[in-house]
Amino acid sequence: MARTPSRTKGPRKAAASGASRVPPFGRSLAMLLIRAREAVMQRWRPFLHERGLTDQQWRVMRALREVDSLEIVELGKRCCIHPASLSRILPNLAAEGVISRRHNAADQRRVIVSLSPRGRRLTEKIVAEGERIYAELAHDIGQERLDHLYERLEELIALLAAQRNGKTRRVPATPAIEVEQLEDC
Predict the structure, then answer these.
(1) Cβ-based neighbours of 81, under 8 Å, separated by 6 or more
(2) Are 103 and 110 in contact (CB under 8 A)?
(3) Where are the chain's structural domains?
(4) Distance, CA of 86 to CA of 72 (rounded, Å)
(5) Per-residue pLDDT tens for 138-184?
(6) Which CATH number does 28-163 carry?
């Protein structure tokens, strides 16, 4: 059977001609963010593992450190942990005496989680010890660059959330975007 020439460019031809806006896999935004996260976590994982903690357990502890308590759904959102994964993480932390769980008095289906006094002491100790890792990171890449990175990442998250929620119009690329340009992010 004879092949008929295609009138549309295939993926290879489109990429070669510059018509495609899809970057190579390793340069895609999602992969760069994942690789950056892994590079940071390579510094943290040995530290956490020495203390018997996983990345996810530490995220839960860090999130709870900043509040008195959270409902499980909100905790999952703040930690970027799927509820099914939380259902495995929380019993382990409770068994270690790090967190406490109780039902919401107004709605028994909802569970509220908080750090136990032991968990709060442990979290504060780890945070104090972990300051060395943050200091090394700032030294290695530069405090100004690190601050700029925090700002750009927070900006990206706010812009994408605002776009998803229809709260702002498309914002042109600028070196810095003022918070006033974002409506209720």
Answers:
(1) 56, 59, 60, 75, 89
(2) yes
(3) 28-163
(4) 8
(5) 999 999 999 999 999 999 999 999 988 887 656 555 544 443 333 33
(6) 1.10.10.10
